[in-house]
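Journal club prep — side note

Before the paper discussion, L.F. wants everyone to see what a predicted structure for a comparable chain looks like in token form. Sequence:
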Amino acid sequence: MAEVKKIKKSQNYLQLSGVLLETNLKLEEGVKGQAWSNKDGKMKDLTCDVIKKKDFKNPSLLLECSPKDEDGNIIGTYQIGVDFNGIGFGIGAKQFDRETDKIVDNDNFKGVMTVLNTYVTRKDAIDGEEPTRVFVKGGFLSPNEYANKEGEFKSYLPTITTYNVTSSGVPENDICEGSISGIIRAIKEEMFNDEETGRLKVEFYMFDNKGETYPVELTVEKDLADDFKDLYETGTSCKIYYDILTRQIGAKTVESSNGGFGRREKHTVSGYTVNEYSVFRGEEPFEEENEYFIDKADMKKAMQSREITIEQKIKDAKDKADKPKNTKSGGLGNKASKLNETKVDESDDVDEMPF
């Protein structure tokens, strides 16, 4: 099998600042679990307090952001969900130190505990108390994909993730924007009721630190659509700047928790809100000498590698669903053997569809 070139991790950075509406966190004391030990490459037993989500399908925090234009007028008010990195497995108070392999305090736990114990949400504010303004300074987009036991692979809009939320140094004006690098796979006219809206939907692919690619859908408003198509085409690698907006689908947002996993639903009954990553600026397309440039042929191989990964996730999900609860598996996964058995298409025909 031809080697798939590991493409450099995408630039992936965003900022959010606004009012803390509510948290979706709880503390569980004395949880028995396991943590990874670098010393012997094994999982070791570890008991400690753990912060988890109250409701797994909803984000850790909900912020209200009301950015303003250059004249100081509010552009819009958006409720945006944020997850702490690693919260899906719970954030433990203790961890194994990578250098010494000793159990030490987890700084991430301390930070989230500060949010849980000292920050005031608008939902819980009483007697005229002001809710806490917070700043997500080092946020990023994370893939939101999984395979279910029915053998279906689900891929949704990437979620907003962060290592840290602070109440210090919060900008006076709200911020909800970010930037990413990657490659454009498709540019399509947005359709509604079989008619073009004038907006564009851009299928944009990014890369993680393992060299694996994943999609994010970008939106281009009417006033930038022609300029976008003049500057970019399918197969262009570039850096894009986007606003984080939210749009209500269906009924008006109300107090509820009926959102389905992966839909980014937040407090809705018959409708739901969705994030939109709306392009407001873009840099010139990357030239080949740029470290973030992505060759079309390499991207084609990366997409084929992604299909292999998806097939493996589906197989693993089915195997887990079919496996008797009391049966222990022999070994850990079989992804390596699957990759060795699957050949990557090495054809040079990449002109009609880059990947």
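L.F.'s comment for the group: Confidence is low (pLDDT under 50) at residues 253-271, 327-354. Keep this in mind when we get to the figures.
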